[in-house]
Amino acid sequence: MENLISLVNKIQRACTALGDHGEGSALPTLWDSLPAIAVVGGQSSGKSSVLESVVGKDFLPRGSGIVTRRPLVLQLHKLEEGSREYAEFLHLPRKRFTDFAAVRKEISDETDRETGRTKQISSVPIHLSIYSPNVVNLTLIDLPGLTKVAVEGQPDSIVQDIENMVRSYIEKPNCIILAISPANQDLATSDAIKISREVDPTGERTFGVLTKIDLMDKGTDAVDILEGKAYRLKYPWIGVVNRSQADINKNVDMIAARRREREYFSSTPEYKHLAHRMGSEHLAKMMSKHLENVIKSKIPGIQSLINKTIIEIETELSRLGKPIATDAGGKLYMIMEICRLFDQNYKEHLDGVRSGGDKIYYVFDNQLPAALKRLQFDKQLAMENIRKLITEADGYQPHLIAPEQGYRRLIESTLVTIRGPAEAAVDAVHALLKELVHKAVSETPVCYFPKLS
Ligand SMILES: Nc1nc2c(ncn2[C@@H]2O[C@H](COP(=O)(O)OP(=O)(O)OP(=O)(O)O)[C@@H](O)[C@H]2O)c(=O)[nH]1
């Protein structure tokens, strides 16, 4: 079963390498059909903290304002006990990061590379794989935090842009939504619950996570929510207690934080009875199990989509013809070869080896003579007209030998009459030659020709 998640991880990486980020990709998109878990929530709701707790490592950029500005596809791979943990980015294939502070820096730098050092966002994801004995196999997508107002340096559209980006991920039926809401705020105002209700009204694929339980006002607790009495979702709510800002400042490590979280739930009287299904470790295990089940149910569909895509791409490849040589000599040879093949086909069409050349003969043998016959030469060459033209041509001078000027005028005026049919014949032959060029192009096996108009 664990292999299923790794398999989907590999397919996701292949999609990104091929530029498939879902809708809008040039190729048929496979990305959209792969199940994934997207983490959504308002800014400072605790998304990064949840992700770090699940991984058990400090590795996400922190700071005030908007920090996550590109989707982060985080693939967790479980290693055998005792193995050394490391991280890898898809955009830096052969580089292993063992220092997680460097991972954090690379996420920031890579975000800046795409968006510039502005506070803009981009929907092109960063792919990070973490290999560790302390993780479960899981793929999570961290998305920018939903916000209500643009801060300085951001366009007014940022609020809507973030919402659109988040929506584009979570509205896909294959997306499992991890909706993060802070317990110290009224759930009715939770951005995560609001947006996930819109895209998943039945709650089939939404998991509610309640953070900051330790920060609730004295005398209040989250028992009603965690027991599913208030804000019922299809799956039970999971409460977590992440590191506070003071803990982060004091460099409290994640393992200690997880231990403290366990102790918090098992020793707080209100939550004792729920302790077995609370906390980041439980969250990670449950999401991994759920992801596996979803993948299992989607495998036949994914398989048939891959097969269909392979067939489509192979057809496209064979339509494109032989691969093009990379060196100048090879390219020149290929161009000459294509020209030669085209030339041969075209000539065969004209010569009658292939069809089409006979239509040109028909124009001269039938169309043009028929049109000429329809002209009224009788009127043009009537004695009366000839006499008039000849007389007018010489003016007051008597013609001595032959009325040369008159003959010329007569021939010129007759030629004007046949101009129309002659031009129609030229146009017809031109159209036929173009048609033969198209035919010869389509019959030339290597189709690298620019589209002929
Ligand atoms: N005490 C306590 N503090 C928490 C908890 N969860 C998060 N925090 C603190 O809340 C602040 C915001 O948490 P983050 O994890 O950065 O929130 P975020 O949603 O990723 O924020 P953005 O990236 O800005 O959208 C940090 O100072 C955390 O230490 C919690 O369960 N308990």
UniProtKB/TrEMBL annotation:
Q: What Pfam families does the record point to?
A: Dynamin_M, Dynamin_N
Source species of the chain: Punica granatum (Pomegranate)
Keywords (alphabetical) are:
Cytoplasm, Cytoskeleton, GTP-binding, Hydrolase, Microtubule, Motor protein, Nucleotide-binding
The protein's matches in SMART domains, at most eight in alphabetical order, are given as: DYNc
One Gene Ontology biological process: receptor-mediated endocytosis
Per the record, what are the reactions this protein catalyses?
A: GTP + H2O = GDP + phosphate + H(+)
A GO molecular function term, named singly, is: GTPase activity
Q: What Gene3D superfamilies does the entry give?
A: Dynamin, middle domain (1.20.120.1240), P-loop containing nucleotide triphosphate hydrolases (3.40.50.300)
The Dynamin-type G domain is annotated at 31-300
**InterPro entries given in the database record:** Dynamin, Dynamin_GTPase, Dynamin_GTPase_CS, Dynamin_N, Dynamin_stalk, G_DYNAMIN_dom, P-loop_NTPase
The protein depicted here goes by the name Dynamin-type G domain-containing protein
Where in the cell?
A: Cytoplasm, Cytoskeleton
Q: What GO terms fall under cellular component here?
A: cytoplasm; microtubule; plasma membrane
As for family, the record states:
Belongs to the TRAFAC class dynamin-like GTPase superfamily. Dynamin/Fzo/YdjA family.
Top-level taxon in the UniProt lineage = Eukaryota
